[in-house]
Structures are given as C-alpha cells and as structure tokens.
Amino acid sequence: MERKKWFHSLSHWLLERSKDFWITLLGLALMNLYEATGDLKWQERAQTLADAMIDRFHDAELGGFYDTHAQHDWLIVPVKSFQDRATPSGNGAACQFLALLGNTVSLLGANPDRDYSTLAGETLNAFWKLLEQNPYVGSSLLMGYLMLEGFTMPKPDLQRPEPGGDDEESGARLASPALGG
Asked: CA-CA distances (angstroms) from residue 68 to 26, 77, 111, 138?
C-alpha cells in the first residue's frame, strides 16, 4: 500500500508543478516496467498518467504538447519544445510514450477513451515541417515516428545461413566479380 501511495504522490506532484517532459519520462519508465514484468498495474498507471498529460498539456488545435499547463499564467507565450538537447524534447518523449502505449493498449484488446497512436501521429505532424528542414534537432520525434511505423510494419525474416550448409552457393554469389570478389 505504501508503494501505491508513493506513486500517486509523485505523479500528482509532477502534474501540478512540473513540465510535460518529466511526465512523459515517467510514462516511458512505467511502460518499460510493464514490458519487463508483464504486470498490468504498470500499464494502467501509464495510461492514467497519459490521460492526465493529455488533459493538461495537449494542444487540440495545432497538435503537440505544451511544456507547461494553462495554470502558469505568468508565461507570455506558451512553449512547445521539439528540439532535443542532452535530454529528449517533451514532444519527442510524448510521441514515444503515446506510440508505445497505443500499441500496448491495442495488443491487450482494450478499448480506451483515447486513441494514443493517433495522438502520437498528431504530435509528429505538428513538427514535421521543422523535422524536414532540420532532422538532427528532433531525433526523439523521429524515434517516435519509427515506433509508430514499426508497430505497423511486418517483422523482417532475420534467418542467418548456416556456415558450410546448403547456402554455400549463396556465399559464392556474394564473391562475384561485380562485387570485386
């Protein structure tokens, strides 16, 4: 019971006083715990955190996530980070978190109120023009793109040929004159 109380205290503190970035990193950590243990409580907590993150930080009009919520009235202009520095940007981490959560929820057959994968895609779309011009500044967003695409792509056949087996013929083809062999 004490651990559950600690989690709720931490997530409440993050939601009230922190930036979107820290919440997304906690969400990614919860999803990693779910993947490592298979315990649904981590996925459920991540989903609760994602719903709160969307309610507080999501820009429904233009896509993406603001760094702070609307209660920070001392900001003249709300900021949406997309550029990675020593840590991933808030929107890059949010895209990854929502892509991972969306895939997990669909694999579990759950029917959530929100489509997390669509929100991850909308986050990408909000910054896509900037990524086309400077892809190196948003590698965490690009990783989110790969996560979204990777969940829908067929798995590659990664069989390696056995040395000395019937595949020696294919090895001989690799040493062809066209390849300098």
From this structure: 16, 11, 29, 19
> What's the pLDDT score for residue 61?
92
- Widest Cα–Cα separation across the chain: 71
134: alpha, beta or left? (left if phi > 0; alpha if psi -120 to 50): beta
Kind and range of the H or E element at 126? helix 116-133
Per-residue pLDDT tens digits for 26-63: 999 999 999 999 999 999 999 999 998 999 889 999 99
Confidence at residue 23, expressed as pLDDT on a 0 to 100 scale = 83
- Long-range contacts of residues 106-115, Cβ cutoff 8 Å, at least 24 apart: 108/40, 108/43, 112/47, 113/51, 114/50, 114/51, 114/54
Cβ–Cβ < 8 Å for 27, 42: no
Collapsed DSSP state (helix, strand, coil) of residue 38:
coil
Domains observed in the chain: 2-155 (1.50.10.20)
| Tokens coding 29 | 């950590």
CB-CB neighbours of 41 under 10 Å = 13
Q: Give the CA-trace dihedral at 124, 126, 130, 134, to 10 degrees.
A: -20
pLDDT of 14 > 60? The answer is no
Amino acid at 153: M
